[in-house]
Fold:
Amino acid sequence: MRDATKARLTLSQLDTPQTDHAPERDIDILSFLRALWRGKVWIILFGLIGLALGFNQAYRVAVPLYKATAQMVVQVNNEPVVNLDTVISGVSGDEYSMNTEMEIIRSTALIGRLVDQLDLVSDPEFNPYLPRQEVTTLGDLPRMALSRARDLVMGPPPLQEPDTTPDPATIRDDTIAVAQGAFTAETMQWSYIFTISAVTQDPEKSALLANTLAQIYRDDQISIKVEATQNAAIWLSERVSALQVELENRQNEINDLRSNATLISPEALDALNRQAIDLRSRLSEEQSRITRLADQMDTLKAAAATDDATVKAATAGDSQLDAILASVTRGEDGAQTRFDRRFDQIIAQGQIELDRARSQEAAFLASVERLTVQIDTQSANLVRLQQLEREADATRVLYETFLTRLKETTVQQGAHQADSRILSAATSGYQVAPRRMLILGSHILVALLAGTGLVLLREMLQNT
Structure:
């Protein structure tokens, strides 16, 4: 009798406090299970409804997504075709460079080329402005029924003006943004291999997108090098032309300077300096001789002012005059006249010699002055010539360097290689969504929990 009474306990009775011998409330598992058994029909019904909703979600509503992956490898030690210094370096292969390349792959520039090449603007999967096929679900049936009834009672709603279609640039940008979300680029740890994956609603489309983006990325590496080489070639060509004109101008200035100035060389300048030194030495000697002759003339003129023949003879220092002086001393007739005539001749000869020395001095002075001007001019011209030659040599070195670099750059224009290559092309994509078993299991579990909760609530309400 006590067992039957215990079997009819309700949920509310399970929550009542126990006696002092049982301070904690215990749940009667048997009553709980019997309550569930009595409501098994509802629980099963909810489970079937959850199964139906999950099946509809997994096999009708959820759009299948397929993933295709292409593998690429970075060629770090990529040897150039020609053994020349490259204009632009390749990918170094370190972590920072690899992460940068992953972002480049998903950049708007490369994805934009993909959108244009595959005309993804015309694909409703990527163009959000194109109409898409709507799928009717079980959850949409009540809403559709209410909408149909409202239209029958109140009439159809007024037609709305269609939205203005955005400009093509906006459509393209939005398509690129959607397409970016379909791609992932990841590196493989401890290697130079990276993957490019595409997820779309079609397995073949996923493979096409992954392979196309891989090829675009590879071609972009080559095009960047080609563009950099072309820009470098243009810049080098302009510099070579400018340096060639500058070198020709410098050479023309050198030729003009050499043609207008004679003996313009360090050796010629040294010869002029030696000649100037010799002239100055001779000038100094001539000036000393003039001083000596002038002193002699002053002495002779001073002696001439006296009437002492002995003083005159001693001053003149002439042997012939000394012989005549002896005749004068003996008192011979005509001796004094001959003495005076000879003394006058000596004075005249001294004056002639002094005048000749002074003329020679003037000639030396003119020669020294003329030679000094010539040396100064030649020195200035030589300095100018040496400066022009140094500038011409520097310009020639730059010209030859840039010309060599231009030839190397021109040779490289057709010899560029990509820094990566496609290791494995993407094949037909495999399904990654929806995960049907997970969807079915979650729907059934939620439905069973809902049915169980409803049954327990019903038991509580009946026994209150």
In short: DSSP finds 14 helices and five strands in the chain. Residues 262-412 form one domain. The CA atoms of residues 243 and 398 lie 7 Å apart. The longest strand covers residues 65-74.
